[in-house]
């Protein structure tokens, strides 16, 4: 409890609180702009935060992460254009509700659902992260290696029909982590004679390319060359009924949706704690559950449960995705992985040692997720009331030029190295190829981060015993091996179990 007070004390600093407030407002705006999301914004802003105090920088980034998924529901409901990938399912019923004259009320329900899910997962983060972190301090090289394997196993195990694409993406990420000087032999690997590759490929320019540069390419594909604004054309059709308004949902509506919020928040929190699962799986799982629990309702035609469930689930993923990052040093998704870069440029290391070496920052992150969601509810309702329609009118050509400028400046500013600008451009092209071939980037990002950790801890474990049986002799490591086996076997065992069940 005393440590939480330490984190709360950080937010009493007006500059830190203002940074969190600004981040929440910026996240809502970014989410409302189709083509942008939290990953792009955080990737671009990480180098900019270099000159800030760590507490101010972290509060700003947490604020963006907290609210951007919520902001993505605004264009999803008004225009049937998801502002972020996490709002894809919200558009199914949200836009139909707007066509029925309930657009502003639907926005209110979305904002409230998002805050409920965010607060739920913030409490999970606060109570679970320190416990896991204290247990993780007892881990040795064998346990950390198996944690890395588990992170990759969850990606494969939850891939579904596209298992081979997830596996291919993961292999590319593991290869990328091998570039540079080997920690085992001291020899250079895959540097192709380039001195700039001796230290490997840095995370921040890589993320700027995968998210920032890629977003510009996507916008360029969709923009109408004549008017320069394809979204504006659809914006002209947005209208609202006189009785429809932005306000906190009524008691009757809250009683109707409370079970939905609880189910969606639970699903999002559980999947958020699993590396590689992400928001997409959470929103579809929550939506499918409500469809099964309400067979009498026609989802996709304007059902309130159809927007409440995915919105609660996507924001529940936000804070819970930080649980494995803060407690174990393993990012829960690609956005939380960006916080590794943010902590690194301020001389901090994600993982259990953060709670012992820098408890003020660790507990600031925990408290900021909670306070950020509390700030978000009134701010989101006011935002939807006064700015929701106007923010969608920003010309995407001007927006693209601004993103490119920030990406180039951010990549160079990371270490004042022009080579990193080339890295960002290269990975923008790589991201575009992944996008066109429908290959997910999350396994690639996770594997490229975990690769170095796995290699280092595997070598240390082998030096310690000289035998791979160490992974079976230590209880925690053995338990992780068993869990990995379940995840890896599930894509094949699941269909077989369903087939035998159907025969009976």
TrEMBL record:
Keyword tags: Membrane, Transmembrane, Transmembrane helix
Pfam families, alphabetized: TctA
Domain of life: Bacteria
Segments crossing the lipid bilayer: 15-33, 40-66, 72-92, 104-132, 144-160, 167-188, 260-287, 361-382, 394-412, 478-497
Domain DUF112: 18-446
Keyword Nucleotide-binding: no
Protein name according to UniProt: Membrane protein
Species of provenance: [Clostridium] asparagiforme DSM 15981
């Amino acid at each position: 409890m005393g440590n939480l007070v330490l984190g709360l004390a950080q937010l009493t600093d007006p500059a830190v609180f203002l940074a969190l407030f600004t981040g929440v407002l910026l996240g809502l705006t970014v989410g409302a702009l189709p083509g942008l999301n939290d990953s792009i914004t955080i990737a671009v802003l990480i180098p900019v935060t270099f000159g800030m105090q760590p507490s101010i920088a972290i509060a700003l980034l947490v604020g963006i992460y907290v609210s951007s998924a919520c902001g993505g529901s605004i264009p999803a409901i008004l225009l049937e254009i998801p502002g972020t990938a996490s709002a894809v399912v919200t558009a199914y019923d949200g836009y139909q509700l707007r066509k029925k004259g309930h657009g502003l009320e639907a926005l209110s329900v979305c904002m409230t659902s998002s805050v409920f899910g965010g607060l739920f997962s913030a409490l999970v983060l606060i109570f679970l992260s320190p416990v896991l972190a204290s247990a993780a301090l007892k881990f040795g090289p064998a346990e950390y290696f198996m944690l890395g394997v588990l992170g990759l196993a969850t990606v494969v195990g939850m891939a579904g029909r596209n298992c081979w694409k997830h596996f291919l993406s993961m292999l590319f990420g593991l290869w990328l982590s091998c570039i540079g000087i080997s920690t085992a032999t001291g020899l250079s690997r895959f540097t192709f004679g380039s001195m700039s590759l001796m230290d490997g490929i840095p995370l921040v320019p890589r993320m700027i390319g995968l998210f920032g540069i890629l977003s510009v390419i996507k916008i360029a594909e969709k923009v109408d060359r004549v008017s320069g604004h394809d979204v504006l054309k659809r914006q002209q059709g947005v209208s609202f009924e006189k009785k429809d308004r932005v306000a906190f949902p009524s008691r009757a509506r809250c009683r109707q949706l409370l079970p939905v919020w609880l189910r969606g928040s639970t699903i999002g929190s559980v999947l958020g704690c699993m590396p590689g699962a992400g928001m997409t799986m959470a929103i579809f799982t929550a939506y499918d559950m409500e469809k099964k629990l309400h067979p009498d309702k026609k989802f996709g035609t304007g059902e309130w449960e159809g927007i409440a469930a995915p919105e609660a689930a996507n924001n529940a993923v936000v804070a819970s995705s930080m649980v494995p990052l803060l407690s174990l040093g393993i990012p829960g998704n690609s956005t939380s992985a960006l916080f590794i870069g943010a902590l690194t440029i301020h001389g901090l290391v994600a993982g259990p040692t953060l709670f012992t070496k820098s408890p003020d920052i660790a507990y600031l992150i925990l408290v900021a997720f909670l306070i950020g969601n509390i700030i978000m509810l009134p701010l989101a309702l006011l935002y939807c009331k006064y700015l929701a329609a106007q923010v969608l009118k920003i010309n995407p050509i001007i927006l693209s030029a601004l993103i490119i400028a920030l990406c180039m400046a951010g990549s160079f500013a990371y270490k004042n190295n022009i080579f990193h600008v080339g890295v960002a451009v290269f990975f923008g092209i790589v991201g575009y190829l992944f996008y066109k071939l429908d290959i997910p980037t999350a396994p690639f990002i996770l594997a490229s981060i975990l690769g170095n950790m796995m290699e280092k801890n595997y070598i240390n474990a082998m030096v310690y015993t000289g035998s791979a049986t160490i992974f079976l002799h230590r209880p925690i490591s053995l338990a992780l091996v068993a869990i990995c086996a379940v995840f890896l076997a599930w894509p094949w065992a699941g269909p077989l179990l369903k087939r035998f069940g159907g025969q009976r």
